[in-house]
């Protein structure tokens, strides 16, 4: 762009020229300069009002009109350009300050920093409220420039202004206030009119006929000036009132200080009372220690008496087991899982030494047996007070130790914990380390947490003990989740406690801690899940029998029939969510993404686990409870073959059916094939699956 006539008029301060060429507004020259920048550079404040539409524009160096006015000490221009405060340059630039001196500024420089560098204290005082605390690309504030300027002179006043440079900034005034300032400062137009008056005096006679008009205008502006003076007087009166109010506030502050002194005296009295209470507590602590010593002796006497009673009871139990034939303990010693499952009703019985089946399994390192018996016999102790964990430690069985950490707080008859039984340093560190357990709500104070069982996206699961039983406790921290996840957790909290079915995991209690922002679910402690069982079988190269598969289908279908008739869809059926109850039956759990079918039987939200999700979910279509049937078909197929029918989303969406089930009865293969129908209408209902499975008991 070229140098316009408007820029030329603004450079010279020619108001008539500026008015005549306002059509060139917002045009820039080859350096990006505007007419407003030219006027500010040369200190022509009269032109700024006429050029206000160019406020905020920056040239090729990112400099504004305010920056140039601040650089060259044009204070009156700065006052009119304060709406540009707060802007900074985008890149570094070299500016010619005088004929001999060029100064290089970094990116991020502000008008305040420029005024500081050039030692213009009156402009610094104007800009400080709007730009204090801003930093350039080197991290320097205006205060740094006050001590590191290359400009000569006495910077004392500037440094005083910036001594306590803050970071809170006022917003710059609106550009619309420029009109008000221009009206409230009639001297601007008066000076213009007077210059025109001088020109008319020197003009030919034929132009002097406008002099009378200009005099009238001058008289009007003088009247406006008197009005402005009146407003100034009113402002001074308001200032006086404000000073009186400040004086009143000072008196209130003095009263508050006196009150604070009285509070300090009260605090000192409380401190003395606290010291007296502390002395009383020390005396009570000494008395408590004496009582505890007496209590310990009484407990030892009771323990001896109890041990004698236990010995008599054990003898009776041993005789009873002998009369009943093969016991649970005998089955454990034979490592027969099927026999163990058949005798789970004997859980809790002990042999002549007071050992339970779980203790025998732990001492032998039988990991799967320990996993099965843990919910039933954990936290019991033999005649010596040993727990199953102590027997596992004594045998050096690390996997069993990991499963039995929920007993680590118990002590034997000699007052020793499992950690004190450990010889291996690595095992001792595992036992000595006490995890940090969350606090349970007051409504669940009858339970206490004993070990960490697992951690997931929606909460942590702990082993717990209370009401004479071992339980699983799910603790969900609500604060770390977004609104969608909080809705899933809220849904599980509403749905889960209302369910009552033999094949649905039982909820024993719920609670909420508003202070910790957590929700707690207490449920039965299960004996593992189907995923763990399938992995164990795969490692042992052991397949499921037809009857075992029918049993699983029957029990899962029974649970789904119950849920579907209550208008509930599980939506995340998979082996990890099919648990084993204490009697070996399958129970469904984890209702975090379950959905209530309301007026419509169709849903559209994307939920579930990828490998077990029905094709209609991937296609983005509406879906209903038949997605649970598809997932059950995938689980049944996986039990039959050890592999899933489809290993990718693309395979799920293809029209090719799942590979045929070789070596399985045709009625079982046909049922699984129907459950894996890609058209939801062709899949059987949960009750139909249940009835078919019942025929194969």
TrEMBL record:
It comes from the Eukaryota. Keywords: ATP-binding, Coiled coil, Kinase, Nucleotide-binding, Serine/threonine-protein kinase, Transferase. Its EC number is 2.7.11.1. GO terms for molecular function: ATP binding; protein serine/threonine kinase activity. Residues 447-697 form the Protein kinase domain. It catalyses: L-threonyl-[protein] + ATP = O-phospho-L-threonyl-[protein] + ADP + H(+); L-seryl-[protein] + ATP = O-phospho-L-seryl-[protein] + ADP + H(+). Residues 211-326 form a coiled coil. InterPro entries: Ankyrin_rpt, Ankyrin_rpt-contain_sf, Kinase-like_dom_sf, NEK_Ser/Thr_kinase_NIMA, Prot_kinase_dom, Protein_kinase_ATP_BS, Ser/Thr_kinase_AS. ATP binds at residue 474. This is non-specific serine/threonine protein kinase. It comes from Giardia muris.
